[in-house]
Write a structure and sequence with these properties.
The protein is mostly helical and 166 residues long. The protein is 85% helix and 0% strand. It has six helices and no strands. Helix 4 packs antiparallel against helix 5.
């Protein structure tokens, strides 16, 4: 439980920094932010997965590194779209809203595919228990990050209240 609380606190701090910086961040800034968060996340995962048998540790990190690279590439594209929508929220029209909604759906499907693919790889590398333990931590972190990102985007109804349309 102590590890989970530490994980939550660290994620919230990292997410708060990265989410506010990503609103207007160009692609190079996203790379820097992702690298910093990735290193912090890796330390959290390392702490959480500290009971890995010695013979499986190397295999775990090999799969984790490949997973994290694929995840960051996927997230980068999504963050760019999220930043665009957040910046243009006041001028959001039907076409832009529909485009973002479709992009969001494609992103969620790709994330689900990524999880499935790497759960299978992790299962082969370190066994089902450790693979599930990792995936549980990963999903938890992703949910915390998504919640933090969403907290920086006004609800559609709030946009209309803040900027009434004539």
């Amino acid at each position: 439980m102590k590890k989970i609380l530490t994980l939550i606190c660290a994620c919230l701090l990292a997410c708060q920094f990265s989410a506010s910086a990503q609103k207007t961040a160009p692609a190079d800034d996203l790379t820097i932010i992702q690298a910093a968060f990735g290193m912090e996340k890796m330390a959290l995962i390392k702490s959480y997965m500290d009971d890995l048998p010695a013979d499986k540790t190397v295999k775990f990190w090999e799969v984790y590194d490949k997973y994290e690279q694929a995840r960051q590439n996927l997230v980068r594209k999504h963050l760019v779209e999220f930043a665009k929508i957040t910046v243009m929220a006041e001028a959001l029209d039907d076409k832009a809203a529909a485009a973002y909604g479709k992009e969001r759906g494609r992103y969620e499907a790709k994330v689900a595919q990524l999880h499935k693919k790497y759960f299978c790889k992790m299962n082969s590398a370190v066994g089902g228990f450790q693979a599930l333990k990792f995936m549980q931590a990963e999903l938890y972190i992703e949910n915390v990050v998504q919640l933090e990102l969403q907290s920086h985007m006004p609800f559609i109804g709030e946009i209309e209240v803040l900027v009434p349309k004539n």
